[in-house]
User: Fold this.
Amino acid sequence: MMKIDNLHASVEIADGVEKKIIKGLTLEIKSGEVHAIMGPNGAGKSTLSYVLAGRDGYNVTDGSVELDGVDLLELNPEERAAAGVFLAFQYPVEIPGVNMNVFLKSAVNSLRKQRGEEELDALGMLKLIKGKSKELGISEDMMCRAVNVGFSGGEKKRNEVLQMAILEPKFCILDETDSGLDIDAMKVVADGVNSLRNEGRSFLVITHYQRLLDYIKPDVVHVLADGKIVKTGGAELALELEEKGYGEIVGSDEEAA
Amino acid sequence: MSLRVLDYSALPTLKDEQWRFTDLQRALGDSLLNASPQAPDQVLIHKSHGQMSDKAEEVVWIGENGVHHQPRLKIVLEEGTQATVIERHSGEGAYWKNCGTEIVLRANARLNHIRVQNDSVESMHTDMVHITMESDARINCFSMNMGAKLSRHDIHTAINGSGAECMLSGVNLLKGKQHGDSTILMEHVAPNSVSNQFYRSILDDQAHGVFQGKVHVHREAQKTDGYQLANTILLSQGSRMNTKPELEIYADDVKCSHGTTTGQLDEEPLFYLRSRGLSEAQARMLLVQAFVDEAIDKIKDGSIRNQIKEIAKQWLKEQLNI
Assistant:
């Protein structure tokens, strides 16, 4: 269970200058559930994902975040990954010169080491990576290239799903995974995510549009505005938002922000 | 045998434009200033027509405490010949290795030159390299600079024949109070030739790096392609880098570019890797290694390339505490 309680966070926008973005956010996501967070630009969606993953420069000023009773705010990004947090980036980062295979091997074994498990040998690793990439329809050619370098928008997002499949997290954040994708690519990515849904894993899907939620069906939909959850409902809330826009629900002031 | 004591007042000072970042006299100190220069050690590698060998030639220069060495390496490749030369520098104690390297490539000759400078951290290393190239000659020089208290690697290339190709690349790995200077003058005298400079530096502690690269395209050297790139990653607050890229172009139909960057490791890829479970040290190692390997990849020979990558890897591991 992911438990976010009265979270306040600010972002360092210049040396010593902080801007409050998250202003008292409370959220509970039970294992196996998929929650969606929708909201207008500037509501704090991406900030929330970085705060949960532990990025430098995103400072929590109040509140708590616990995953299965583990206080995440005490942990650095790699320790959060070991605790089961996975962030699928809105813009996956290109890393020239670092080969996909080397990257995945380092990640898997580093997580296993942190979790007190035995590291995988070369053969075990090959099997794991080959198996998962085949399931997701990822070419071997892509695995020989540098991480995200020269990948199309669709390939980058599929690569995020592949890492999710290989690293087996407990809690996944999908930060605007639909951005930059055409319908076909979105279906492929959604299918990948759906295949990873299980009772021990929960998802937080961050998106502007209802479209992605046609493919990844959420159990609960939240509306985030000005750093707080302002409305919560079932999947039908996403449809309502699509129809009426954010203005009516969050008030026109917040929409402008 | 001892030569007469050099006239040290003739040594360059910070007032000389080409030496403004590298204080040779100060670094030499009294003991080395007073050491008598040894007679030059000379090595000649000469390939004449019909002499073909795939085997790499190795030249090893070892420095000894208190000595002013004068290694002289001359490589002459006659028309159509080729060679691979590996030059290794090491030593113990405080010494001055004042090298002179002359490379002459006749028409269509091909040289791969790999230099690993790992002199003692108390030593001084200066190397003046002169390269002359005739038409369609090709040279691929790689230099690893990781040793010496102060090093200066001067490369002066004269591309005198058309269709020639000159590739210079290097990696500087400097720590402690090391000072490393790579200074290049690329002269395109004849038309239709290509030159490329590709340098990557990692500086830690209080190390000081210098890159001065100049591409000089003469009036007759139309259709020249001249590129220059020098990137540096600073691992510490105390390290610094001076770069001075220059283009001097007198022909009107050329393609030339230069670029330099100096900075810390990017935060974004670092966070991306850490969010996947890599420790901060592991993530830094992977990123810095990839950065350095891109320059080492310019070496054509696979086994030498791997050997150099391994040397760089060990150095990085030590600096990044892995």
